[in-house]
Design brief:
This protein is mainly alpha-helical. The chain folds into two domains: about 1-130, no CATH class; about 145-230, no CATH class. It has helices at about 15-20, 30-35, 40-50, 55-65, 70-80, 85-100, 105-110, 115-125, 125-145, 170-175, 180-190, 190-200, 215-220, 225-230; strands at about 1-5, 5-10.
Length: about 230
């Protein structure tokens, strides 16, 4: 057992805690190797990916550590509806499952939460990097599985940023536009509509589902079909 001043009872590894303290979002691969936390970095990225990029990790980790060891059924039954742990208790389980040695240090964290804060901050900071990484993995396969209309120029290279989303006025953009009045507005001047979307000057409501969500062939055959019935299953 390794101990450090300020805690004389709970198990902890100074070596592992030093790696946690060294976590730095600005470090590149050589830096992570130098500071000895390459594996911990990968584990944190897995947590961000599996637990959700926008989960409130600071609260989840501190609350999860506090209730660790209590009867799970009692914790669930006494948790106030709408509270952090009511929504995110399973995310704490993700942290326990994916970060080696985390569970071994829970009792230590109950008496000294300094390094726990380092860990939660780092996982939170990883959200942008994790998102970019996931997109880079997925987008290379999109054209194989998703039908994207070919633009007038014949360009269908979705890997090129200038050819994606609202930049592809006569291709992808036709599927991103919400059905109904928004699509009618789009048809009046597709280039102007896409320009407003790219510049953030045109806002859509959360219930403005894009045309890609609907069976357009069904709607073309029977315009009177209720939109909810035309949603892809």
């Amino acid at each position: 057992m390794e101990e450090e001043e300020g805690d004389i009872s709970a198990y902890h590894s100074n070596e592992w805690l030093d790696r946690v303290a060294a976590l730095n979002i600005k470090h590149d691969a050589p830096d992570r190797k130098t500071h000895g936390y390459r594996d911990l970095y990968s584990e944190c990225r897995s947590v961000s990916r599996m637990g959700g990029q926008y989960s409130p990790y600071k609260d989840i980790l501190s609350l999860g550590v506090a209730e660790y060891g209590r009867d799970p059924e009692i914790c669930a039954a006494t948790t106030k509806k709408g509270s952090t742990m009511y929504h995110y208790r399973d995310v704490f389980d993700v942290v326990v499952d994916y970060i080696d040695e985390f569970e071994d240090h829970i009792e230590y964290f109950k008496s000294d939460a300094t390094k726990l804060g380092c860990l939660s901050t780092f996982i939170t900071q990883l959200r942008g990097r994790t998102r970019s990484d996931d997109l880079s993995r997925v987008k290379t396969h999109l054209s194989d599985y998703i039908h994207i209309p070919v633009t007038p120029s014949g360009n269908k290279d979705i890997l090129e940023r200038s050819c994606r989303g609202w930049n592809d006025t006569h291709g992808c953009a036709t599927l991103l536009v919400p059905i109904g009045k928004e699509y009618d507005e789009f048809l009046l001047d597709p280039a102007a509509y896409c320009k407003k979307m790219n510049e953030g000057r045109h806002k859509l409501r959360s219930d403005n589902f894009p045309r890609a969500f609907y069976d357009l062939e069904m709607l073309a055959e029977d315009p009177d079909v209720p939109l909810e019935d035309a949603l892809h299953q």
